[in-house]
Every structure is written in structure tokens, then in C-alpha cells.
Amino acid sequence: MEESVRDPDTGSETGGDDALLGNVSKLTVTPPGHTGAARKGHLVFDACFESGNLGRVDYISEFEFDLFIRPDTCNPRFRVWFNFTVEHVRETQAISSAKLRELRLVGNISHMPQ
């Protein structure tokens, strides 16, 4: 699994909007201050594959993450789709809200297609 540099306050990749230049690759998002190995429920986001476009993930709470989608390669003004995977989910884990820039999704992560 690839190591990622994370901001200790947000649990996300560092670099602000500059982090949107590439995809997250097996990024484990843990609560701020967590040390040691990731546990079941500490989600692993990945978009390092063809058509993947998740640029950054910020930990908000156990059930809430801010997701930043990279712009379309051929038209940087638009973000009309999203494609990424989420692993390491607890069976009962749900996301109360996930923000994809201005798009707001509400649902149970265990029922989201991969």
C-alpha cells in the first residue's frame, strides 16, 4: 500500500488545491491524532486507475468526509462525473453527508457502487 503524506489536523493529503493535480492512491483517512495501524472503519480511498478523479479527502467526522474531485482533463472548468473506490468499511458504517465540491450526496457507503 502506498504511503501518503497527511495533514495531522484534517487527516487529508497535504497541499491544499495543489493536491488536486493528481489522484489519491490508497489514501487511508484516520481521525486527527490517531496513531498506529488503521482499523476497520478507517476508510481507504483510491482513484489511481483509468478515469479515477478523486483529488483530495478531508476527514470531518466518523461519518463525514469532504471529497474533492479533480477537473476533467480536457475541460478543466467542469467536474461532471466522479470515479473512485472506498475500502475498509465496517458493515454498519454510513456517511451522513459527503461533499463533492457543490454536489451533496447522502447515503450509506456500504451501498455505494464501487
From TrEMBL:
Protein name, per record: Cytosolic carboxypeptidase N-terminal domain-containing protein
Lineage, broadest ranks: Eukaryota, Metazoa, Chordata, Craniata, Vertebrata
InterPro entries: Cytosolic_carboxypeptidase, Pepdidase_M14_N
The organism of origin for this protein: Ameiurus melas (Black bullhead)
Keywords: Carboxypeptidase, Hydrolase, Protease
GO terms of molecular function: carboxypeptidase activity
Cofactor: Zn(2+)
Cytosolic carboxypeptidase N-terminal domain residues: 46-93
Alphabetical list of Pfam families matching this protein: Pepdidase_M14_N
Region (Disordered): 1-23
Top-level taxon of origin: Eukaryota
